[in-house]
Specification:
alpha+beta; Nuclear Transport Factor 2, Chain: A; 6-stranded mixed sheet; 25% helix
């Protein structure tokens, strides 16, 4: 078993939840008391039901985006993932995710850092 198997599994399940927007798929990602930060300076969305509600409120629709990722580093249960999200409307983002995974494969903390890519004219 690779040190990244649990991360790959979690990322696959995250992509599934992102695609389906199914509350059960979202719940399967996080512990009951998880904290989700859309920006590192934000107060966390705390607790699984609040995370599900927040996710569904700001959901992306299937087919509106593509996502690629690769692992950057790991420090025990904390993993760092770099990604790129491209939306069909032309918005593209670079992502850094900091995820704390438990032994059960669910995240207890998730923090998203994202930066909009400049468009072809250099505007951000």
């Amino acid at each position: 078993m690779s040190e990244w198997d649990d991360v790959t599994d979690w990322m696959d399940r995250y992509r599934t939840a992102w695609t389906t927007n199914d509350p059960g798929d979202i719940r399967a990602l996080f512990t009951e008391d998880a904290e989700y930060r859309y920006n590192p300076w934000d107060e966390p969305v705390a607790g699984i039901e609040a995370i599900v509600d927040s996710w569904l409120e700001g959901r992306d629709e299937p087919g509106d985006w593509t996502f690629e990722w690769h692992p950057l580093a790991r420090d025990g249960d904390t993993v760092f993932v770099e990604g790129r999200t491209a939306y069909r409307n032309g918005r593209n983002y670079r992502n850094l995710w900091v995820i704390v995974l438990g032994a059960d494969g669910r995240a207890s903390r998730f923090t998203e850092w994202y930066m909009k890519e400049p468009d072809e004219h250099g505007a951000g």
